[in-house]
Amino acid sequence: MGNFLYIIAVVLVIIWAISFFGGYADGGIIHALLIIAIIAILLRVIRGTA
User: Fold this and answer.
1) Is a pLDDT exceeding 80 seen at residue 42?
2) Quick check: 49 pLDDT over 80?
3) Mean pLDDT across the chain
4) pLDDT of 2 above 70
5) CA 20 to 30 Å from 16, out of 33, 34, 36, 46?
6) Cα 35 to Cα 41: distance, rounded to the nearest angstrom
7) 8 exposed, middle or buried (CB, 10 Å; 0-12, 13-18, 19+)?
């Protein structure tokens, strides 16, 4: 389950970067998803399972 969350987090960061640099803005939902993705990555790094 941890790997699955990590993969989702990385995909969300990539989608955010593409939409941010591509000029496409779909509201605040992508930013909320980005925050969740960053938190998931940080928790994985802090726990030392990276």
Assistant:
1) yes
2) no
3) 74
4) no
5) 46
6) 10
7) middle
If you search the block for the tokens 């998931």, which residue do you land on? 40
| Cβ atoms within 10 Å of 7's Cβ, excluding its own | 11
**CA nearest 14: which of 33, 1, 27?**
33
Say which residues have a Cβ less than 8 Å from residue 9's Cβ, sequence separation at least 6.
36, 37, 38, 40, 41
Task: List the one residue out of 5, 12, 13 whose CA is nearest residue 45.
Answer: 5
Residue identified by tokens 């969740």 is: 36
pLDDT confidence of residue 1: 56
Q: What angle do CA 49, 9, 39 make, to 5 degrees?
A: 70
